[in-house]
């Protein structure tokens, strides 16, 4: 057998072919590196890809979409950064379109973030009034479309955004619009006592007032809101003839025998706002994002230095409120409306794990959560994550720390909130499962939300579900028959996803 030289030649100027097909072409690499060195010496651009910063429009879009999501970041800081990004690049057409489009889309798709988006607009208005002017104009145009089409949820949310911008208006802002909506509600209720569209208009009014006054504490505005509240009492306090049809516990012999107080939502709102009025409109749960005195710390963590321009506060640019025409004939909208009952498994118990029905926070939290659930029905995973993070979107100290054990709520200091974010979210989901005559979406969607919530935070959700199941089981005898079947369907579906684990010994005869 002939000897075979297996040695590889690494030297010389030979390339891959000169190595006999084996090894690495070190000589070729040497020449290649030489060419790269020549490129650098001759001033040729480096051909290697480098990381480049995203354009301003892309960064602005991301900043708006993620605002409020980080619990470790102050909403004022996030709002200021987004506003700065918008004002410094507002000459860019893409930035202008992105800011207006994303801000208005967030208002009707992620209601939790409306006060934060309003804060961004107010910060931007201080540096460039054109930003707020464009947003107000486009928001008014959308509001008119929703009003003409009878899209009451979208109308309510855009009206809320406009109300949160109340300090920017030269005139009375949204109050004349609310007055006109009330006049239409009176006309509808006068024509028919069974009308539900008028109730929906009153509900929109009552849910707008808190955000309006939280954004603007002007005494004249508070007085005007109090006068409007006195007028809505005639409709909100009257029982609608259709309410018994949506009562979840119709078989109870008396209201005291019902497992829960099944009051209508607008009657609760009316009483809650009257209590807030008597206490000076504290509205503690609504976040106040815009703070003209807020200064971000430097990159070193030091407090910002005061400058002469900071000492001389600039006046806030004001804008004319756009014209909104409330049609004389109200479009009832594409969906049938019924009176709404406030269904809660945890409210008004010895230990308050959710806001009591006497607090305006109960209706404000419930309204924002239900809108989020029913708007984002196309993505149950994203919706479940929003519900898991609801404590990020409200004022500090509104909730206790996540996953706080129910037994530890007794030990909370006096004056501290004992509201569990998990209980508030689960309570809202069950209110949709047990809504009469039918919920907005298929029941399996609400089932899946509970399942996904359990997967995201099993240690926090499971105890809340256990208390909810026991509460429902105790009152099943007086429950509406349709709702009893819904309870059985959900319970069976839920257990099938978790290996049918339950403390069955509790229900033995």
UniProtKB/TrEMBL annotation:
GO MF entry, a single one: mRNA binding
Superkingdom of the source species: Eukaryota
One GO term describing the cellular component: nuclear cap binding complex
Compositional bias ranges of the Basic and acidic residues kind: 1-10, 305-315
Gene3D superfamilies: 1.25.40.180
Domain MIF4G-like type residue range list: 355-507
Biased segments, Gly residues type: 11-26
Pfam families listed in its UniProt record: MIF4G_like (PF09088)
GO BP annotations listed: mRNA export from nucleus; nuclear-transcribed mRNA catabolic process, nonsense-mediated decay
Chain residue ranges for the region called Disordered: 1-59, 295-326
Protein name, as recorded: MIF4G-like type 1 domain-containing protein
Higher taxonomy: Eukaryota, Fungi, Dikarya, Ascomycota, Pezizomycotina
